[in-house]
Amino acid sequence: MLYDVIVVGSGISGLYAALYARRAGLHVALICKSSSLRCNSAVASGGINAVLQTTQHDSIRDHIADTLKGADKLGRLSSVSAMATGGEEIIKELIDMGVVFDTQENGTVAQRPFGGTKAKRTCYIADKTGSSITQTLLVQCRKEGIEILQNHVMLSIATFNDKLSGITLLRRRDSNVIAFACKSLILAGGGFAGIYRGHSTNSQEASGDILAIALRSKMRLVNMEFVQFHPTTLANSGALISEAARGEGAYIVDESGARFTDELQTRDKLSRDIVKHQLSGHSVYLDFRHLGEELIDKKLPSARKHALNGAGIDILTELLPITPSAHYTMGGIWSRNDTSTDIDNVFVCGECAYSGVHGANRLGGNSLLEAAYFGRVAGLEAARAAKRGEFHPIDYALVNKESRYIETILEGENRFNINTMRRNLGNNLYNNAGVFRTHDSLASSLEYIHYLMKMSSGLCCINKERSDNVELLSIIEFRNSLTVAEAMVMSALGREESRGSHYRNDFPDKMINIMKSIP
Length: 519
Hints:
39% of the residues lie in helices and 17% in strands. It contains 16 helices and 17 strands. The chain has helices at residues 12-23, 40-43, 60-70, 77-85, 87-97, 129-143, 209-216, 244-247, 267-279, 293-299, 301-311, 366-388, 396-411, 418-432, 439-455, 470-494, and strands spanning 2-8, 28-31, 48-49, 111-113, 120-123, 147-149, 152-160, 163-171, 176-187, 221-222, 227-234, 251-254, 284-287, 320-329, 332-334, 346-348, 353-354. The chain is globular.
């Protein structure tokens, strides 16, 4: 198949990119690894930041300042300024497409405070904001004639004489490797916090596939050490309890009911406070009881449902046990302000991208705005590139190579349990490359990753069926996870300081001269 623009990833950034490329009059395909609603955007609950004309006691300058402060001196001012300035336009555009934000009595968009700022800047739809926006954008993409290809897994970027020619994919319905040609490619495949299996708010599909593909294509990955742990997830499962809960006034307490931290400080600091309290022998809880049933059912219905279904807790009358879990990854594929990358006509947006906005720590509410804003930029820039570009031949030696790789997994004899290996990787990363890190813990983690890399060659499908083989996808994802985990841990070893979400017990201070800043 020939497409002017191919977008890989169906979260908010990918959907926005596809829309804007399509609106330029181009033939656009949107590639989804599974269902188009199984993405981190769809489970982002709390809201989307924007300074509106109706916002009180806030300004774009304050939004920029809060974001840069949260980024802990690793934010890119030009990117942050562009995003914050474009916030109101994004909200208006979403409303025009059918997103129904919660409103105040006077009909203006309601906003709540989030961590890292006391301003009420976060627009929301109860505590299901990401899901509502994603569904609306998906409907809009279908209306505008974008070809949505679900259950296609990207395997590699195809080039000819160092020029983009297309991508190779695994078609899940028959496990065949196919190739699509394109003039421009947009990578919007999400982050990699899912590699912390058992200690993550993400699904196992958040395995960093796009980042692993980028590494194999010799693209730069930067700031990979910065993994954000969400401070409030269910203690028994890692399921997310949105920051909306704290924004609406829920307390963080210990078993005695005592508050021991500032609930609206940045996520990195709050996660460290919680883990320190746990290490000193305390249990930690979210306390909703003072909020009342009316507020909870109106503004936090998902929190109540998740607590009841996931932990058997009624938050109206009981404390909810919580713990931090890996949630969001600030590092990714290096990009310029226009979302272009190291490969001509390849653009990147969303969580798999390093846009320069989040630096060492992301503020809650900024991810959805970044996804929408830079998704739009990527769509516009990819369309411009496609209009002046041309198709290049696809080297089918690459397709044959990928086909042999898939056949090896399908036909080989399995020697190990992939579910055990995934859980072990997640446990190892959480314990050794988690909220607190040291040289020794990181070195131990890296050694274990290399051990798993060797073992992973013995992972093959027990089920040899070619139609929608779940084992095949799991093995591909796990091998990509190991590639990304290695990059993350090596980056963490190299940053001998504590900054943002990266905290080294053996290097608790910041470097005065930031040698590792990325332009």
